[in-house]
Amino acid sequence: MPNPIVFSVIESPLHPNFSNLYKEYGLEEVRFNSMRKVLAALKQTIPVYLFAEFFYGYGNNYAGANISNLDVLLRSLQKYAPNTKVIVFVDKKERQYVDKLFDLFPLFHVFTLPVTKDEMLTTLT
Fold first, then answer.
1. What element of type H or E holds 50?
2. What is the CATH number of the domain that holds 76?
3. Contact criterion met (CB below 8 Å) for 86 and 108
4. CB 107 within 8 Å of CB 101
5. Cα–Cα distances in Å, from 72 out to 27, 46, 67, 77, 88?
6. Residue 89's closest CA among 116, 62, 118, 122?
7. Which pTM was predicted?
8. Count of domains for the chain
9. pLDDT tens-place values along the chain, 125 residues long
10. Domain that holds residue 42
11. 115 and 16 in contact (C-beta within 8 Å)?
């Protein structure tokens, strides 16, 4: 039987690397460096967890319908993988904006960076 899949969407160097921890828990990590690739993968594979960084849309990039870099991904999850547990990493200065995302999408957990191994263990157990 294959190991449960974890998607890590890595968009900056701040994304914590817990690859070894995932392996310890029998999870297979698939890493993505673009939203386009993770969106395509969702149509083929349903992850148990999705780990992604939150970036608030200060400028015109997300103006109007979107709050952050994660809106389109989270909408796709609702369609293709509604039971996936979404864990978001956010910089301390942007933490206040994640609540807007909570209003629209179910998030399993939000971590303010930096995240320790012990903190991550509480989410995986």
1. strand 49-53
2. 3.40.50.2300
3. yes
4. yes
5. 25, 16, 10, 9, 14
6. 116
7. 0.91
8. 1
9. 689 999 999 999 999 999 999 999 999 999 999 999 999 999 999 999 999 999 998 764 545 567 899 999 999 999 999 999 999 999 999 999 998 888 889 999 999 999 999 999 999 87
10. 5-124
11. yes
